[in-house]
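Q: My labmate handed me this sequence with no annotations at all. I'd like to see what the chain might look like in three dimensions before we decide whether it's worth expressing. Could you predict it?
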Amino acid sequence: MKALWRDLRDHLRNDFRPDLYVATTLWVGLLLAINYHLDLEDSYIDRYQGHPQWPFLYFSLYATAYYVSVWLWTYFHQRPDIWRNSEFWLRSGCALICYSIYSGFYAHSEWSRQLFDGQIYVFAYYCLHNLQSVLTIVLPLYLFYRFIDRQPSSFYGMAPKRKGLALYALLLALMIPLITLASFQPDFLASYPT
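A: Here is what I predict for the chain of 194 residues:
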């Protein structure tokens, strides 16, 4: 736990700028207000469900939120060099594309309907739905890492360190009673019946 507090303290010492945090808070507040008022995803983007432009609309939504946030960071830290870095564009573009495809990917529903019928359809649908993130995020990022990125380090921080594992285990142990308690609440059960 000491390592977590030390890392948090070091991050705040190196990165904390009240002007940046206020600007970022205002930007996130604006995004939330627009999305709450217009309901962008359900009212506009999902109209194109199943059409080829659906992932492009998601990409536009996510890229706007992400790149303006990065611009705020680079502006307040006086780091315009980030925008000229091809590695930044390659990595961020790949990640945004993967997440946009993930968000706009519902082919598993049609695949389940075509391949299976009757009661097994529901089971097949949920199996394919659970594999969706593997097919649309993990596999493309692994291929990117393996053939394009070629960094000798771990797979984007996925090589655990012993001190990190102990910390994660402690945090998980703290969360299990809270999750168990929440799982018996009517509101929670209405949102997550399984």
